[in-house]
Design a protein that fits this description.
This protein has 19 helices and no strands. It is globular, with a radius of gyration of 23 Å. The two termini are 38 Å apart.
């Protein structure tokens, strides 16, 4: 039966199902854990700043390990790394749930370990799929995978709230054990064993990239709290620059680099990655700032805020596959340029109309438009980048796309927070988000002035992305290996293609 499935025309969708379940549970985990934090805080009798490391440690582990795991999958075999990641994810989920009867450091450590497994899943899952689907359906599979991610983002908070309310916060983690075991079995049975490339793994490059990313993310995430001009942050920024320089120096000289930096000589890769980073830089802060605005200024309850945010998430689920199919048919430029332009327009509308009595209909509509815009951009942009690289680099390039999103998310929140608290200080109120309170009209208006300024800045960032997407071009470039094979075919005597 398994052989029949693997040989059937629908095998690619069986493979998508196996990978999709793993992707779904890794995305659901983040949203459900966020909902559980208040109960975890009370259970261990600690503070929010400490318990936040349950989520922060998980996110940092994913970010710093994406590139190494993507390259390891290219070398050792993506199915192998994906399966190992699933096993680690499931074991760590069990340990995280059991930590209820141990202590908080065990929970944080388990979540960091789970982040290691999730990095292996995220770095290799998409690379597996784009090798199974034909090139002319690359946009379709990328868009379908985006729908899985969007569905996980919607389901995470809802599932977390249900589990915490009826079974206890430990089940937010324990629920992944039975689901993960089924997913491991499906992946093992359904996916064919892919072979890696015979190259040595770049350990120095992996260490340097992980250290650089960790320091960059910590500086971006904590710069506003510690003060951007503090010695700690300035030292961290200097250390980040030194580590990035060392990574570039090493990668350009080693025989088997973890990330082939010469790929960035190709316009589709370099400008595609830049446009992708800018798209999330100009969008991601909304997921943090809008709930803050809705709860602190408009006085909606957390449950109501969750319901308000659902239409935008559903919009991403619907648009992702559609944009992928359209880009397969009509090309990338119209989708990427249009998506970024529409996103910028949505922020400008909100920046003009935000107040202490803004219509909820307008807020939901603009959030849906912005989500539509991001879904319109994301799939075609990733497809264009992958079209310009060899199959042997799909893993590390897919991981690079994931890393682009994660790092831009952190930077976007840091940028928006800095703009808002600085504006609040200029307006003569306490420059802190903790001080925002609708009971004080002066503080609320100062916060709104900062939020409007942040949205204008985000719109400006997206307009820069529009320019990059326009000049990047449309026509796919042949990857180096493909170009060399084509050159040899053309130069072969007597080869006329027939």
């Amino acid at each position: 039966m398994l052989q029949a499935i693997r040989q059937s025309p629908n095998y690619k969708w069986w493979a998508f199902t196996a990978i999709g379940i793993g992707t779904f549970i890794s995305v659901v985990d983040t949203g459900s854990a966020m909902v559980a934090l208040p109960d975890i805080e009370r259970h261990f009798n600690t503070d929010l700043a400490t318990v936040q490391w349950v989520v922060v440690g998980y996110a940092l582990a994913i970010s710093v390990l994406l590139l190494p795991m993507g390259r390891l999958g290219d070398i050792a075999g993506r199915k192998k790394i994906y399966l190992i990641g699933l096993v680690i994810f499931v074991l760590a989920a069990g340990l995280a749930g059991a930590s209820r009867w141990i202590n908080l450091p065990t929970l944080i450590g388990a979540k960091v370990l789970q982040g290691v497994g999730s990095a292996m899943l995220q770095a290799t899952g998409m690379a597996i799929l784009i090798t199974i689907f034909p090139p002319h359906e690359r946009g379709k599979v990328l868009g379908s995978q985006l729908s899985v991610v969007g569905g996980g983002a919607v389901a995470g908070p809802a599932l977390g709230g249900f589990l915490v309310s009826f079974w206890g916060w430990e089940w937010v983690f324990l629920i992944h054990v039975p689901v993960g075991i089924v997913t491991i079995a499906l992946t093992f049975l359904l996916l064919e064993g892919g072979q890696g490339v015979r190259r040595s793994f770049d350990w120095p490059g992996a260490v340097l990239s992980a250290a650089a990313l960790l320091m960059i993310l910590l500086v971006a995430g904590y710069g506003d709290r510690a003060g951007w001009t503090s010695l700690t942050i300035l030292g961290g920024a200097a250390g980040s620059i030194a580590l990035v320089a060392a990574f570039i120096w090493w990668e350009l000289r080693t025989a088997s680099p973890m990330l082939e930096l010469r790929l960035f000589k190709r316009k589709l890769v370099a400008l595609g990655v830049a446009a992708g980073w800018i798209s999330f830089l100009g969008s991601s802060a909304s997921r943090f700032m809008m709930p803050f605005y809705l709860q602190r200024v408009l006085l909606y309850s957390p449950k109501e805020v969750g319901l308000i945010m659902i239409p935008a998430a559903v919009c991403m689920v619907v648009v992702g596959p559609l944009s992928g199919r359209l880009s397969d048919r009509f090309g990338w430029r119209i989708m990427t340029v249009g998506g970024l332009a529409v996103g910028a327009a949505a922020w400008l509308v909100l920046a003009t109309n935000l107040s202490q009595d803004t219509s909820l209909t307008l807020i939901i509509a603009m959030l849906m438009v912005q989500s539509f815009a991001l879904g319109m951009f994301f799939t075609p942009n990733d497809s264009s980048i992958l079209s310009a690289v060899d199959r042997s680099s799909y893993g590390v390039v897919s991981a690079l796309n994931q890393l682009t999103r994660n790092s831009a998310n952190v930077t976007s929140i840091a940028m928006a927070t800095t703009v808002i608290v600085t504006t609040m200080g200029v307006k003569g109120v306490e420059p802190s988000l903790d001080a925002v309170d609708a009971v004080s009209p002066l503080v609320a208006e100062a916060f709104l002035a900062g939020l409007r300024m942040a949205f204008r800045l985000m719109a400006g960032v997206l307009i820069v992305g529009v320019v990059i997407a326009i000049i990047r071009g449309e026509r796919a470039e042949q990857p180096p290996a493909a170009a060399e094979r084509a050159r040899l075919r053309e130069s072969a005597p007597g080869d006329s293609g027939g």
